[in-house]
Amino acid sequence: MRLRRTEPHTLAGAYAMHALNAADTKRFERHLVRCPECAAEIAEFGEVAARLAAAAAAQPPEALKERAMAAAARVRQLPPATGETGATRSAGQRPARLPRQSWAARLALAAASAGLVLATIFGLTASVEQNQISQDQLRSRQVAAVLTARDAVMLDAKVRTGGNAAVVMSRRERALVFAATGLRVLPRSMCYELWLIGPSGDTPAGMLPAPRQGRTGPVIASGLASGDRLGLTVEPAGGSRQPTSPMILELAL
Amino acid sequence: MPEAKTSGPLFRIFGVRTGSGRASPQRGAQAQRTADRELADLLGQVARGDLAAFDAVYDCVAASVFGVVRGVVRDRSQSEEVTQEVVIEVWRTASRFDRSKGSAMAWVTTIAHRRAIDRVRSEQKAAERELRTVTAAVPYDDVVDTVEANLDRERVRRCLGGLTELQRESVTLAYYGGYTYRQVAGLLGVPPGTVSTRMRDALIRLRDCLGVGR
């Protein structure tokens, strides 16, 4: 079995379809930690598999439903995973394993809990890594600098009005990259605006562009100071100098 | 129905057919997203112990779950057992479903496929199972016959039809048959590396064809 010969990345499809034996699974999962694109790809393959499943749908016998319902009523349910409501410090949950890992590994670990919302950032980091991204796509070298900073930390949170936000921040770069998926679509007269909330008040940190295919950003916010929190509000188009509506996301950085 | 050239009855339902193509992926994807949002909401209620919501979830997912499980497990009574396990697993772990990570249906069918695979791999070496038994993966007798199910089948069939034969066989043997890619390689007589590559290529093409990318 010339295991080493197969490019591990090509196993993503087989992995998503549970078509790896135990040894191959182990090997691929080692790769997965270093392969942010794989995580996003596998999630997409899961959606493909769901359609394959639907296409094979077959009606189970009626009696099965009664048995399953009766059995479920006797089974105790798992409580929600702790820390899943509101902001979570994904990267911070594994402090012991973090220090010696690369930024990509840390992003991939965070991905396990932050999920698909990070696909945008992943795509970007992967491209940055391969030097395949144009200045235009990047918008600024700062984005790459944050994503690849040694002290980069990833946070994720739900937005109160719908959607998920992912943030990669670097204290060293004094900046953060913000991306979101599934944000509620706003009328043209409104926009989302980011804020850095510090001891000296709320500082505008940029307006979010209109979403494309459900994804917003990534955008960069710089000038991060120690103790700042990140906020998000809905403002009149063009933005405001001070928040004029309640925070729909507030994240301790 | 015309059939894929060398697969014979193996992939009958997925035989290549370039037909009217009335199942537009856009429209399908839209309907799918709506249905999935409803299912995700229901799972939220199930997580809070709502048995009525669980009843509705069962109705949404049972046929997909049973279809997948039976394809892999083959044996009818074992398939029913595994299906019940999957459904109870959904009840038990509903609070862990996170819609930011993927669709509700993908979450459920992943559990189903994983459970089915675990059952057959723990029982016997899957390679020992005869290839011909895959024929039973999608029998016609109790295939769900609703408009939505037919559309699903039509779309999947059309997209599978757009794959190369090796890609299609790799995916169907792995997913519906429950074989590892190494076993698929053995069955098809091609190097494992080729199969793993084709599998991934196939899923990428299916993703784009089905419009389920993010």
Keywords:
heterodimer, A: 253 residues, alpha+beta, 4-stranded antiparallel β-sheet, 8 helices, 8 strands, 22% strand, extended, B: 214 residues, mainly alpha, globular, disordered N terminus
In short:
By secondary structure, chain A is of the alpha+beta class. Chain A has helices spanning 12-16, 22-33, 36-55, 62-73, 103-114, 119-129, 135-138, 141-147; strands at residues 153-158, 164-170, 175-181, 190-198, 201-207, 215-222, 229-236, 249-252.
Give the SSE string of chain B: HHHHHHHH
Radius of gyration of chain B: 17 Å
Gyration radius from CA atoms of chain A, angstroms: 21 Å
Q: Determine the mean pLDDT of chain A.
A: 75
Unreliable runs of chain B, pLDDT <50, ≥5 residues?
A: 1-23, 125-141
Strand content of the residues of chain A, in percent?
15-25%
Task: Catalogue the unreliable spans of chain A.
Answer: 84-120, 124-138
Helix content of chain A: 25-40%
Helix vs. strand class of chain B? mainly alpha
Q: Give the oligomer, counting copies of the same chain as homo and different chains as hetero.
A: heterodimer
The greatest interface between two protein chains, and residues involved on each side, is: A-B, 66 and 83 residues
Largest sheet of chain B: none
Structural class of chain A: alpha+beta
Molecular shape of chain A: extended
